[in-house]
Task: structure prediction
Amino acid sequence: MIRMLVLEDDGAAAESSCRTLSQAGVACSFERAESEAEFRQGLQHSPDIILSDSSVPGFDGLAALAIARTECPRTPFIFVTGNSDPAAGEVARERGAAGFVAKANLGRLAGVVRSALDERTELVQESRSDRRKTETDAEASSTATYLIERQGILDRALQHEDQSALSNVLRRHPPVPIALLVLGHEEIRERFVKWLLNANIEVEPLTSATEALASLEARTYALLFTDQLNLVQAMRQLHTGSATHVVYVDVDGTVGTREALRRGANDCMPPEAGGEEFWGHLTTARRIASLSAALQLALTDNRILSTIDELTRCGSRRFFEHEFPREVERAMRLRRPLSLLMCDIDHFKAVNDSHGHEVGDQVLREFAARLTHGLRLGEDWVARIGGEEFAVVLPEVTIPKALLVARRLCERIGLTPCDTTAGPLRITGSFGISGFAPHRGDEHVSPRILIRAADAALYESKRAGRNRVSVA
Result:
């Protein structure tokens, strides 16, 4: 018999789901939760599967999914909802849901549950046989990816930024270690594909200069092999993308190295394999592809280090200082709301003084985890900006909604004691809120003003007794 945790404010709907499964031959029992506190308590009972409505009063289904994926990552999470919008199902699956079943089509539930349980069994077996990364590294990489996705959203919104090829490299977009191959003669093209693959160089063959320019504009390649000088010249005029090393293939032997270099190529080689000189050209290309791959790996590692606070796995202070002004600029440009929560741990100095910094670090990590879990992935983000102080950035969120979020976070932090080597410690947090609202005429609000206002509200919460939320 499978044990289910059902997040549902309608008791009859929860019983209907269980009855449908039983009639389909899936023996089950269920525990129903109607709030976040009950849901978290139910997770401690290690359910085999979770069914959730898309929303119960005061608690969003996607927030429940985020909590479940953190606390019970192997437990399948299935939405059973009155919302039949296909777009909602796509969002749910992108966030990690194992299925999305409309209440009007409850007959599908048994099949979705069986598939989810089978998939969980396969994942457990795979995880036992292959553990190439530590849990900490995976968490850091995941958080970095999530924050960098937000950077990409800001990049697209703030289109006036410098988009030159050099800027792409400096902004952590190194050339991909791929050779773009644009050769008109089919036999020569197939020959070069074979040679480059034998040299361990990944190849992307194209026949059209128009397609090639579109690819070069979208990304920077390590290598370009072409027999079209007009493509070389056009590529050199691009404001984005490009190729690091351009090799002109002199098919007819009439252009020559000097003319190829004058027109923008970095190298010129014949179409036939002959002599040490030819293989010297190919060796140079292979080294450039290898350097591009090494650069990508190094910049990926550096991106994680510069994006993530090592202790808490939230965004770093450096990330906040660079990205929050861009969030404000985006909000003002698009005339969309933006809210900022500043928060810190109440009486944190007493924790360090009484139990030592090791326990203090454990409390910081748990506080950060409770802040992060339940926020909208890819949109909201958290950064540690110093000591025990954190910033929570909520794009597209008005101050009234931010107040609800902050109250929920405040309640979550104090809900259960924090497990430490010194034993369970109950912690609380204080919050201050500021925000940008275009309808209020806030067009000229600066990031510094928002930070100061949220800080002032935070200290008002401290003065009023802590463990509370204040609004600037």
Remarks:
- The radius of gyration is 28 Å.
- The CA atoms of residues 122 and 138 lie 20 Å apart.
- The chain has three domains: 2-129, 167-300, 309-471.
- The longest helix spans residues 275-307.
